[in-house]
């Protein structure tokens, strides 16, 4: 997506810019390490699927304040002319380490590490968080829906109720990343090179004199299409499809009917029976209307003969968990580990790596350690940007990320596939090295605090 | 915003385009009336504040398929060359009636009415719903937060956790519309001409050797600033501010301290006491961290001496109600009322108006009627676009919408200000004219269905 590449550098919180001027005024040009992570899994999530990195890297590569941006900043009365002049030359020149998109992550594990002069690293906080948060929230929800659909088709129908244009494009991307078959959103399909799907709306049926005329017009125009049967009376709608099959004979080529209201379980069974009795075994059943992973799983558990699911609202806003407590925190500055101690929000200091043990192809536990600690073969964070440029060969594109995401979900311990709140927690440890560093800083801080008394 | 004006016309669901070709192929060029409304208030909402109209009108005025869009559509193998050629000339030439932004609306009340040749009205469904839904969801949440803050400052801090870039800009806009004082988002502040606010981050404190050095550097640079006191130990942080006041003497000019963790009620009281004892009565207290209308109201009920609130995550994703069941439904085509009967999702046929009774300055009840039925003086839907062009003088801008929004909230019945699920429902009726039209269509439909047996 070029949206992020051409996004104004003013897409940031005001305090990032005021802090930047203060660092600049203090001649603080040391290297900072910021880590993006979340602290707690929300109810209804046993893991998070990381996403958003490609867009973050686009933004970092394109970061610059243009003349209009600088003009606006001058007008705020907060910034000196020299600083604004200096801002004009600011580019992102740092390094980034990150877990590849589609990787499954857990609380306190760094997802993205930004290593750069402190001003640059501070200025990009808002965008990094905005994209990693939103895309990870949406990918995590989609991964659950896809998992619940047990190999059946899942199509993103979220464009109309996603939170704005960017989110509508994103939910198409992250759903595909997480294993969905495609999206209804044409722009997203073009931008990301993913399949576009569509059926028909009630308005189409309503605009025609009769349901069967609407079906016939659509089916003649679109071989292999899907017909929406619930505008007036669902099972009578199914009968109209059967009538159409008789009318068109050999020319009848309809892939599926779509149910969009009512008791989808009972209706799908009744519809399947009528279609089968009419010999229309090859006409599938596609369902939509208020679906999420819980509804999909319940329908399939109940034996509903549904071949595909259109999932909209509850997917596109991640309705049960629309936010994570994701943060972007300074862990090192000028070579020294940094932390904060305010209640209940600990930051582990220093640059870190996540080591994952894998046993028999299944994730067995993670340790958050120091980069050198070699605690397991699998190290989640990899270098993706060096001196402000993407590392060649890192970004293999959405299809590769999708394959990686599937491998990740396949390697989850069985308990994490459960849709219920797992009593079992995936084992996550902090290495002795990291724990010691935190204690050392705590001790120093206590000494400083006592001196000040 | 120009984002919507330059948005590709491909920001639509695929079925809008396949239906458009079917209408075109059938020579169906009659005028359609589509209405946007929601069916049910979600838990935790007693009203919805309508928003998003300005962006919808921008999009409608700019609607066109460019060469890249047409090229992509040709490649899908669904559309004839003639149709794609014809699409190149499609513009939005219809009329729009709508409730002004900031208007309080209730279930089944049309928010936006699109009256246009059916192809045009169908193609814009996705964008109309995406914007009206997202902006109304976010404005409704913000209205509650502002109401709960009882006149205190509310600042949108949502940029980092809103669902993408568009939502981050939108939440700044809709929060301001609903009465917030400003936003932390610099780009949104510039785009919408609203005040930008900022404090400082923990990283700033952490990067300095000591907390007081960080405070001093920031306070010297930014007279009237806000200092974040909870990085290491909140009340010691307050003591550092007091120490700074002594150090700087007359030059000490700090507007507020900010609390961002822990028990905000207890900490604000203890901080207030320390500041007052030190004679710093004019230093206010600004609070953030996990706030929403419930927390804000509870803090104020408890007498917390907090002067302003930074509200982020729970506002920017409307965490407790991130979606409405908002629909865009055909109610009339070629002069004939249209409906559907599928279970539990009734559509009232025909073009409608919302009549609102006002008694002693308070909303007393609404009736959804036919446009001609003069059921009350106050008619919510007004013409905003004619033949594809904004009606001059309609759009008075964000400040006027904000004043309108405030009047609307002030005129709510007292029960609707309650944050708890109201047992009392605002009275909404359907006029005899609309009810009769629905019954007539139901009867006709039964006749058609019986004929077909």
Automatic annotation (TrEMBL), chains A, B:
UniProt xrefs under SUPFAM superfamilies: Nicotinate/Quinolinate PRTase C-terminal domain-like, Nicotinate/Quinolinate PRTase N-terminal domain-like
E.C. no: 6.3.4.21
Post-translational modification: Transiently phosphorylated on a His residue during the reaction cycle. Phosphorylation strongly increases the affinity for substrates and increases the rate of nicotinate D-ribonucleotide production. Dephosphorylation regenerates the low-affinity form of the enzyme, leading to product release.
CDD domains given in the database record: NAPRTase_A (cd01570)
Domain Nicotinate phosphoribosyltransferase N-terminal: 10-132
InterPro entries reported for this sequence: Aldolase_TIM (IPR013785), N/Namide_PRibTrfase (IPR041525), NAPRTase_N (IPR040727), Nic_PRibTrfase-Fam (IPR007229), Nic_PRibTrfase_pncB (IPR006405), Nicotinate_pribotase-like_C (IPR036068)
Boundaries of every Nicotinate/nicotinamide phosphoribosyltransferase domain copy: 154-329
Catalyzed chemical reaction(s): 5-phospho-alpha-D-ribose 1-diphosphate + nicotinate + ATP + H2O = nicotinate beta-D-ribonucleotide + ADP + phosphate + diphosphate
Gene3D superfamilies in UniProt: Aldolase class I, nicotinate phosphoribosyltransferase
GO molecular function: glycosyltransferase activity; nicotinate phosphoribosyltransferase activity
Keyword terms of this UniProt record: Glycosyltransferase, Ligase, Phosphoprotein, Pyridine nucleotide biosynthesis, Transferase
Metal-binding as UniProt keyword: no
Annotated metabolic or biological route of this protein: Cofactor biosynthesis; NAD(+) biosynthesis; nicotinate D-ribonucleotide from nicotinate: step 1/1
Family in the record: Belongs to the NAPRTase family.
Function: Catalyzes the first step in the biosynthesis of NAD from nicotinic acid, the ATP-dependent synthesis of beta-nicotinate D-ribonucleotide from nicotinate and 5-phospho-D-ribose 1-phosphate.
Protein name per UniProt: Nicotinate phosphoribosyltransferase
